[in-house]
Amino acid sequence: MINVAIDGPAGAGKSTIARTAAQALGYIYVDTGALYRAVGVYSLRRGFDTKNADTVAGTLSDICVELKFIGGVQHVFLNGEDVSEEIRTPEASMAASDVSAVPAVRQFLFDLQRNIAKQNDCIMDGRDIGTVVLPQAEVKIFLTASPEARAMRRYRELQAKGAADTFEEVLADLKQRDYNDSHRAVAPLKPAEDSILVDTTELNLEESVKKVIAVIQERITD
Ligand code: DC
Predict the structure, then answer these.
(1) Is the distance from the beta carbon of residue 97 to the nearest atom of ligand 1 less than 6 Å?
(2) Cα–ligand 1 centroid distance for 221 (angstroms)
(3) 33 lines ligand 1 (CB under 6 A)
(4) What angle do CA 16, 170, 190 make, to 5 degrees?
(5) Looking at residue 61, what is its pLDDT?
(6) Which single residue of 36, 44, 141, 149 has CA 20 to 30 Å from 209?
(7) Cα–Cα separations (whole angstroms), residue 125 to 54, 87, 121
(8) The pTM is what?
(9) Which atom of ligand 1 is nearest to the CA of 10?
(10) Which residue has the least CA distance to atom 13 on ligand 1?
(11) How many CA atoms lie within 13 A of 79 on its CB side?
(12) 222 pLDDT band (50/70/90 cuts)?
């Protein structure tokens, strides 16, 4: 199986770029952030403090998270319910960032991610795919862009959905999540030593996809 790991900060365009590249190459696309978001949504629904590691870890025995690929599109299920829409709110983003710092949560989601990669040619995106989940991946890409460019993309996405968040709020949220994701003790966001850096600040979507596909093809035909 060919495994491609794409890591990077929030809003670098990972999911859109990885999904499009996966389609072009005939691989499945696995968005691992959705798993952390589903765990976060569970805590939010129950009214738990997502920053309390003990509380969050204590919920795991009540949770079943599954990924299903319906018509090639990933859906995430929380205790049998499709929560693919609900996990996309700004509250769910922050809750996901909180719960992803809990070691028991990372452990809980580890096998699920590994098993998908074992059984499929895939592009898997996240924060620790090249460093922790798939250290043997054939290709590792670290995809990034400036905070302002990333916040502007998120802001436009939210606006298109009719959300009222201002650009300043989106930028502040994103910087907070960058800080959380790269300073946590377990599996912090950082490039794998053998990853290839792709900076999309100055690239549009089409150019970014082209670049990522070129990097993958170059590596797998070596
Ligand atoms: O990629 P995303 O925005 O959907 O990720 C949501 C949160 O989950 C993000 O703040 C960091 C965390 N995450 C992680 O810690 N490890 C991953 N492999 C994927 C996401």
Answers:
(1) yes
(2) 30
(3) yes
(4) 60
(5) 96
(6) 36
(7) 27, 16, 13
(8) 0.90
(9) 3
(10) 33
(11) 10
(12) low
